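Lab notebook, bench 4. The sequencing result for the construct came back, and we need a structural model before the next group meeting so we can plan mutations. Quick request posted to the team channel:

Model the 3D structure of this chain.
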Amino acid sequence: MCAEYVQEPLYLAVARWVMHQRRWVSSREIANQFELAPCKAINIVSYILADVAEITCQTKTVPNQLEGRGCQCQRLLQVKHIDELIAERIQNAINNDSETSEESALETGPRVAIRMPPSELNQQQKWQWMLSKAQRK
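Done. Here's the predicted structure in token form:
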């Protein structure tokens, strides 16, 4: 598949949809709109809030009317702005991925040099050598 036809990541599609709503949106609404499991929708919202600097959003917490559940609050999300530089960052990541996979396909030798214990050691000494702090990285 060509990189030009790769769709945007799900978290970005969710953020664009939420921004288009111009209101507070729950993860339950996101799950329904994108046909996701509620847990996955919650994880996407958490990812947008924690790891995507290009998306400016606000959250608010509303008490649930559910009894017997661990969390008695519901988090609502409102996206104010999505920086268009995010598309460039995603495109660069796609290009870097394809270059890396092409390079790895061309390589024939091992990537990592494995350190072997000296051959003059006995079995117990080899184990000690491998377990020593000097050999760990």
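The domain at 7-87 is CATH 1.10.10.10 (Arc Repressor Mutant, subunit A).
Will bring this to the meeting.
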